[in-house]
Structure formats: structure tokens, C-alpha cells
């Protein structure tokens, strides 16, 4: 389920458990920027298989990769359909449900970065 390119990216760059601060002016979702912590493998699987929005969006290729630390609890995702160097997304956990298993993706999904590799620029020491 977790793309090898993501596993390699976080391992090669020692990102597991690291914190990133994306400046407001860089956040493509035009929100307050992003403070996030990168998930380890178990957290990815737990978020994808036990919690919303992971349960609802996994079938669309979204893989949870980080958690918001600004208080919203909104997870950050990559999309396996984007492939290597794909976008980083924020998906609202409290977005309107279309049914028990799916979100209104137009309302819930926001692009944060066009290339998840840009996270490397915002890793906190």
C-alpha cells in the first residue's frame, strides 16, 4: 500500500518522526502554512485503515504521510496515482461526507506543495 518511492524518500532523508514547517506564503492551499510531523510506517497504516479521512480516500490513491500539529488534526497525504515527486495534500478530517465511506473530495482535498520533495526545505532541526 505504501509506495516504495515514499518509503525510500523518508528513509534516505531521515524524515520519519521529523517536523516540518511550511511557510504560509508557500502553502498552495492558501491557509496558514503547515506544521506537520512525518508518520512512520505503523502510523501510515493506522491512519489509512482506522480513521477518517484515510478510510474514505485510500481507494482514490491517497496515502497518509503526516499529521498537522497546528491543532486541526488534518492529515497530510500523497497520492499514489501522482507517482514519484507528486504533490503533498491536506485533507480535512471533518469535511462533509458523501456517504459513510467517502468524502466530497472537491471540498476536502487541498494541494499544499506541488512536489513532496520540497518538504526537505522546511525540516526543522
Highlighted features:
125 residues, alpha+beta, 6-stranded antiparallel β-sheet, 4 helices, Knr4/Smi1-like domain-containing protein
Question: How is the topology of this model organized?
Answer:
Layout: H1 4-12, E1 19-22, E2 34-38, H2 41-50, H3 54-57, E3 62-68, E4 75-79, E5 88-91, E6 97-99, E7 102-103, H4 105-108, E8 109-113
Antiparallel strand pairs: 1-2, 2-3, 3-4, 4-5, 5-8, 6-7
Outline:
The chain has 125 residues and is of the alpha+beta class.
Low-confidence stretches: none
- What is the total tally of β strands? 8
Radius of gyration: 13 Å
Gap from first CA to last CA = 30 Å
**Principal-axes shape call:** globular
Average pLDDT figure: 88
What is the chain-wise order of helices and strands?
HEEHHEEEEEHE
Question: In percent, how much strand structure appears in the residues?
Answer: 25-35%
Count of discrete alpha- or pi-helical segments spanning 4 or more residues: 4
Fraction in helix: 10-25%
**Main beta-sheet strand count, sense and barrel state:** 6 strands, antiparallel
Strand order of the largest sheet: 1-2-3-4-5-8
Strand pairing plus helix content: what structural class? alpha+beta
Amino acid at each position: 500500500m505504501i509506495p516504495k518511492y515514499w518509503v525510500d524518500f523518508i528513509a534516505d532523508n531521515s524524515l520519519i518522526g521529523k517536523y516540518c514547517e511550511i511557510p504560509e506564503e508557500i502553502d498552495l492551499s492558501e491557509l496558514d502554512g503547515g506544521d506537520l510531523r512525518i508518520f512512520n510506517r505503523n502510523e501510515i497504516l493506522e491512519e489509512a485503515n482506522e480513521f477518517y479521512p484515510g478510510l474514505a480516500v485510500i481507494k482514490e490513491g491517497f496515502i497518509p504521510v503526516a499529521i498537522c500539529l497546528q491543532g486541526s488534526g488534518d492529515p497530510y497525504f500523497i497520492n499514489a496515482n501522482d507517482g514519484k515527486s507528486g504533490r503533498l495534500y491536506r485533507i480535512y478530517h471533518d469535511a462533509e461526507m458523501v456517504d459513510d465511506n467517502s468524502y466530497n473530495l472537491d471540498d476536502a482535498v487541498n494541494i499544499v506543495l506541488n512536489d513532496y520533495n520540497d518538504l526537505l526545505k522546511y525540516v526543522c532541526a
